[in-house]
Write a structure and sequence with these properties.
The chain is elongated and about 80 Å long. The protein is α+β, with helices and mostly antiparallel strands and 383 residues long. Helix 2 crosses helix 4. Strand 12, helix 10 and strand 13 form a beta-alpha-beta unit.
């Protein structure tokens, strides 16, 4: 596996203990009767000391060998990276892992949302930060390395990706899909950084009316990618069942008695809203709730269901989930953007793509409401 491993599955606390004691490498090396170069190599996990040297180090630091070096109960301990924009995690945080290129990426399970946090099993637990390595942590595996290598990390806002993941799991083998909620533009940026394997996007270019491809030319210029259709869906106004505010169309968002809930910048729904506001010459300042943000389609639906908002822009499938009224605005294409190298090299990618073209999966996703899956799995562009 192309990631850093601690030798012999040992947690090495030598450097942390030395710095806590206020000693330099030279000071500790002199006290323990070893060279500074040898101490440097030990702290870098390039080799572990024998019994005599380990005892000398423990004596010099006033501690025990077990406090400096300990076995991890037979579990693999790896070095993983948090996404570049992540603020950090605490010890024992549950994380999902994915091998992306030469990196092992860790994402906290809690970021999947309040429900999935309790239903999705973690791949590892965070043991602590890697000294002097920003965004790097030590993690203790809770599953096999093979399973981690076969996981596909998909960023996007379509909750149906979890359904695709379940169909992949039923195929057997180690392949699995981890869906990470993210706005379309944020998903593209995460793909460019190498934080995910796949970006799911639904972005309509105002000038050409073309979906998704113009944004690839802008944000992934020069990168070789394969674009695969996931589904086509209907996007529109979500209204509480019975439409108590009697909203008849988009223009009613300007009414002072209508509260909306919006999506974050970079979300397809937000781009659609801003486009329609411009077309109807409605200033965003007059839209009550324009600055109220939901971080996902399901979260947006929850705002309306709980009576915190009257309307929002989302997929028909969300309206069906919450038994909302729905006013269609446009049909959208949701595509998956995959670096072409992963299509051929990732051990689980072929199973994932083959799943999308099965009638069994397509029938089930269409049953969610508002989805047209006839082109699911179709390659739209391959570079």
């Amino acid at each position: 596996m192309p990631v850093s491993r601690l030798q012999r599955r040992v947690t090495n606390r030598l450097r942390d203990t030395r710095t806590a004691a206020g000693l330099s490498q030279g000071d500790l090396a002199q006290r323990a009767g070893i060279t500074r170069q040898a101490l440097y190599a030990m702290e870098k996990d390039q080799y572990l000391p024998g019994t005599e040297v380990a005892l000398q180090l423990a004596h010099a630091l006033g501690t025990s060998v077990e406090d400096l070096f300990s076995l991890n109960e037979g579990q693999d301990v790896l070095q993983a990276e948090l996404p570049a924009d992540h603020p950090g995690v605490l010890k024992s945080t549950r994380v999902k892992l994915a091998t992306i290129g030469n990196r092992l990426v860790a994402k906290p399970v809690m970021e999947l949302g309040d429900v999935l946090n309790y239903t999705v099993p973690a791949d590892a637990l965070v043991l602590g930060a890697v000294p002097r390595r920003k965004h790097s942590v030590y993690v203790q595996l809770l599953k096999s390395q093979k399973d981690v290598e076969s996981q596909i990390l998909v960023a996007g806002c379509d909750p149906a990706i979890h359904l695709a993941g379940e169909h992949v799991r039923q195929q057997g083998g180690a392949a699995s899909v981890v869906g990470w909620n993210m706005a379309s533009l944020a998903a593209l940026r995460a793909l460019k950084r190498g934080d995910v394997h796949v970006a799911g996007i639904h972005l309509r270019d105002r000038r050409s009316g073309e979906y998704n491809l113009p944004f690839l030319r802008k944000y992934l210029r020069g990168q070789t990618v394969t674009v695969v259709r996931f589904a086509t869906w209907q996007e529109g106004l979500l209204l509480k069942g019975g439409n108590p505010k009697r909203v008849r169309g988009f223009e009613d968002l300007a009414r002072p008695d209508v509260r909306m809930v919006n999506r974050e910048r970079g979300a397809g729904a937000r781009l659609l809203l801003d486009h329609l506001l411009s077309r109807h010459r409605i200033p965003s300042q007059v839209v009550r709730g324009y600055g109220t943000l939901a971080s996902s389609q399901i979260g947006l639906g929850r705002w309306i269901a709980e009576g915190k908002a009257d309307v929002g822009i989302g997929a028909r499938a969300v309206a069906q989930l919450y038994n909302f009224d729905f006013i269609p605005l446009q049909e959208e294409r949701y595509d998956l953007v995959i670096p072409t190298s992963y299509v051929h090299s990732h051990p689980g990618m072929r199973i994932f793509l083959d799943t999308l073209v099965t009638r069994r999966f397509q029938r089930e996703i269409e049953a969610l409401g508002g989805y047209d899956a006839r082109e699911s799995g179709k390659i739209i562009r391959q570079q």
